[in-house]
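To whoever picks this up:

The nightly regression suite flagged DUF4956 domain-containing protein as changed. Nothing in the input moved, so I suspect the structure step. Input below, exactly as stored in the fixture:
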Amino acid sequence: MSFSDVIKKSVLEGFTQSDIGTVTIVVTLGVTGLIALYIYAIYRLASRSAFYNRDFNKTLALMPIVTAGIVLAMQSSIVISLGMVGALSIVRFRNAVKDSMDLLYLFWSIGVGIICGARLFEIAVVVSLAVTALIFLLDLVPAAKPPYLLVINSTDAEIDMALNQLLNRYAKGARIKSRNVSKHGVDLILELRTDDGGRLVSACAALPGVESVNLLAHDGEVRY
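Regenerated output under the current build:
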């Protein structure tokens, strides 16, 4: 018997020895469904302060069951496993992921389906608990306060000296991000940090020639 025959025999025996009965299928999909509902609840709970996508959450709950079913089918026959590989290789997903945390939930959901399909339920439970703990623990880490954007529209193009005095009093780390000068005056956009935005806006509005003042905050990326 050649080496290739030995490999072929061991592979075929590995598939023929896998006995997947009705009880195994029901237990596997049942445990997978319970963990999928757990992922559904965690995503719903963690998304209270952010944008919540109900359809995406339902997808997270259904994906582990489908994935576990595929893994069970691949264990039963080498023909089915090769067919699954060929079919899944031509699938293209075009939906853009808007939030990076959604990638975590997608991989978590798919990973649980694969692990449960292999009937390693303890690993799936431990991984799910570890991911949940890290999600909520990392939310407790204090984030840096994002800077403000101060937008000033003034008819006085020589407003810099008076404005700098106010910035030294009410703000810190002020930097000019944009300066637009025209015959009607100047438009300034400054990035700064302040703990007294109300007084800063009032003081800037009281400067001669200032027509409008806007102080903008954002919840986006923070530069440390």
